Records
---
Amino acid sequence: MYARSTTTRVSPETLDDLVAYIRDDVMPMVTQLDGCVGLSLLTDRDTGRCIATSAWETHDAMNASAERVGASRERAAAMFGGTPEVQEWEIAVLHRAHRAGEGACARVAWTRTDPANLDRVIDAYRESLMPWWEETPGFCSNSLMMNRRDGRCASAVVFDSREAMAHTRDQFMTLREEFVSRMGMDILEVAEFDLALAHLRVPETV
């Protein structure tokens, strides 16, 4: 499975309009393309940062969608401003305990490691992090995406509510720091978002 993420920063005052555009115009178009298995949208209302991620059955399907998705991206930039940043990923792990409902949110950690280390990271992620998350109140799902060329990874953990996510902040920081130290990884950024759209039909890739 593969994914394309588009990060955009807009004025916080226009965020609801951008979410509506992605929900009403972009998502119906993208999800009918061959090989698409859904779309999600993360938003930060304080900064106006949005991350839209489309998921694809194969790398070829993702590549074939580039022109039509790019046109929607350019239209959004013309309407709302901002310079989109596009990244492509392999979905290495996806586990859903239950579907996210209204009010769900996500904590995303971006890291980098030696590309030769990625298979080891995947195994350790499954064996040491996921069992802990399964026991965490309010846990919905987790995913790990990676770029095998440069060793970048993006891990997202979704919770039922802001309250559930806040209760894990200290524990997650300790767990994350121990994990990246053991795996020889660098933390690039950690951020928290609202889960504005979650329409993924991606099968379990645990």
Note: The mean pLDDT is 92.
---
Amino acid sequence: MLFHNLIRTTAVWALCSTFAMAHCDGIDGPVVIDAKRAFAQNNVNLVLLWVRKADEAAIQEAFVRAQEVRKLGGEAKRLAEQFFFETLVRLHRASEGASYTGLKPAGRDLGPAIPAGDKAVETGNLKAVWDLIREDAHKGLHQRFEAVQKAKLHRDKNPESGRKFVAAYVDYIHYVVNLHEQAVGSKGNVDEKQPRHSCGDGE
């Protein structure tokens, strides 16, 4: 039950994190999708959630300018929209501490997690995300645990066997610590008074 609760928490955290950052620079990502809605409804408020309050004025100004140019139609309309998309995504990524390297094309291979996360938001059902993360975390944890148990049998045989045990043990502990930190959201949410295993810090 404890393991299941841990993975369930990890699923929710991972969904929020990947949705916010991992594909926000795509033409088919959530930021640009909201920007298109804002144009369609002439409502800049629909995109202000993606930027810091300090950047609201810049987005509002860019939106007004883009809307004026869009009225010209044709290539001018396309360029105005591109300008606004890039401004919005750039400021959003800055708010997340990420660099901006341009808008990415639609249809990129984002792996299984992001599409599952987006689908869950769309449908209101987290089951697909939960199943994906539970399966991968269960597999990763057990593989490392079994490697430790196997190496443990020969740890005292000679120094080389002992080192193989240590390598397997450190990899296992790193995985456990990282999985837990993902589950609680960030290192900042971990109780700093709780002792940390020196072999598990990776530092």
Note: The first helix runs from residue 2 to 22.
---
Amino acid sequence: MENRSIWSLHGLTGFFIAVALLLGILAYLTAAAIKTQNATAQQSYEVVDPFGIKMFGPDLENEKHIKIYGTPVGGDKLHKWQFVEKK
């Protein structure tokens, strides 16, 4: 007697499901990368007080010297960038 189950995926069926899943993940990541690249390309930046930048110091300390014109991309809460609306 053969042991059959509707939840077992063998052969071509499993292969096609795996390929479709991987292609779906690839499409999602590509679309997210293009969206991020387009949003970032619209931003410009300005260095404020360049002589106050220290070569050695605490992590992320020099980020307060950069002013970015545009809106934040993604959900980054770690960095201390100063975002300013475009004029």
Note: The chain is about 35% helix and 15% strand.
